[in-house]
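R.M. (postdoc): so does anyone remember the format we settled on? I'll just put the structure tokens first.
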């Protein structure tokens, strides 16, 4: 090897080492900024579900090669993702706007429009199958979500003092600027809650909900594969809230009642369930089964099995139910 070749090789090796060192420093800087963002969100009082989704967004950007300390790199990475919907890109942009605000980075976000979509509503059988397929803690969490329509963060923060087992009542402390609620629950759920270990002031313990969510996602994949039903993969913790709201509106046709049950302060947030209910229950046949009630007891029995009152004819009450 000539002296010139040796010098060239040495220079190339030095460059590689400098590049590796630079990459390590950048990776450590990104990791530090990510941890700082996590603490910042917690100090801002963001819900566990919000924190989880925003941290996922940052991790996805990093995984796709974005330097989250460089806004231009973030925008370039977003532009390259052909398989991501505009709605998903919009969610990531909102996450990065907050990150840039915390880091005092100037950021000009791209214009991705978030498409409004109706929520996925599984069948009750699918929800019950998923609940049965999970372990004791997860199944209790999901049963709570099914009966109360509470948000995941609200359930995760439940304390033993919120449970009135004598009256089968659960007190929900709100998040996301909602109203507090007191919910009547089944004796089955009360028993499931009481069967959990009482090692903390909180019913579901002090661990992080992010790890709990990961366990839930693994359970979904297992039952989806076992029952050959990919619909299970679309179920999230929030799906139980959507399902309950849709069922309540279908049974009562009282959107104000649904609003209060969910703890919404703005009726506009509840109105979506009118469209969801119509889509699910009104696309079938327009044929009805009709019944006549001659007494109050007969009317009561018809209502209890799903018939709805139509009108009075010759002193009798007419009811109908869609076939």
């Amino acid at each position: 090897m000539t002296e010139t070749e040796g010098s060239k090789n040495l220079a190339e090796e030095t460059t590689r080492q400098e590049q590796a060192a630079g990459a390590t420093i950048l990776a450590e800087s990104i990791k530090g900024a990510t941890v700082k963002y996590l603490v910042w969100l917690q100090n801002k009082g963001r819900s566990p579900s919000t924190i989880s989704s925003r941290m996922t967004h940052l991790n996805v950007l990093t995984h796709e090669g974005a330097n989250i300390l460089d806004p231009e790199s973030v925008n370039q990475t977003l532009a390259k993702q052909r398989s991501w919907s505009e709605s998903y890109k919009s969610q990531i942009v909102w996450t990065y706007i907050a990150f840039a605000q915390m880091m005092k980075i100037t950021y000009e976000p791209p214009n991705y429009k978030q498409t409004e979509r109706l929520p996925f509503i599984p069948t009750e059988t699918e929800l019950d199958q998923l609940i049965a397929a999970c372990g004791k803690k997860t199944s209790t969490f999901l049963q709570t979500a099914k009966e109360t329509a509470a948000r995941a963060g609200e359930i995760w923060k439940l304390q033993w003092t919120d449970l009135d087992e004598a009256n089968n009542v659960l007190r929900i402390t709100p998040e996301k600027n909602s109203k507090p609620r007191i919910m009547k629950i089944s004796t089955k759920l009360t028993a499931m809650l009481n069967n959990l270990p009482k090692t903390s002031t909180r019913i579901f313990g002090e661990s992080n909900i992010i790890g709990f969510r990961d366990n839930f996602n693994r359970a979904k994949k297992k039952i989806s594969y076992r029952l050959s039903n990919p619909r299970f993969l679309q179920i999230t913790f929030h799906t139980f809230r959507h399902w309950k709201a849709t069922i309540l509106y279908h049974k009562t046709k009282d959107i104000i009642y649904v609003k209060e049950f969910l703890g919404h302060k703005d009726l506009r947030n509840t109105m979506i369930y009118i469209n969801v209910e119509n889509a699910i229950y009104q696309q079938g046949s327009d044929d009805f089964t009709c019944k006549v009630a001659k007494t109050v007891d007969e009317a009561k029995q018809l209502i209890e099995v799903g018939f709805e009152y139509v009108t009075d004819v010759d002193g009798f009450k007419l009811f109908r139910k869609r076939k």
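R.M.: ...and that's the designed sequence above, right after the tokens. Also worth knowing: Residues 288-322 form one domain. DSSP finds 13 helices and six strands in the chain.
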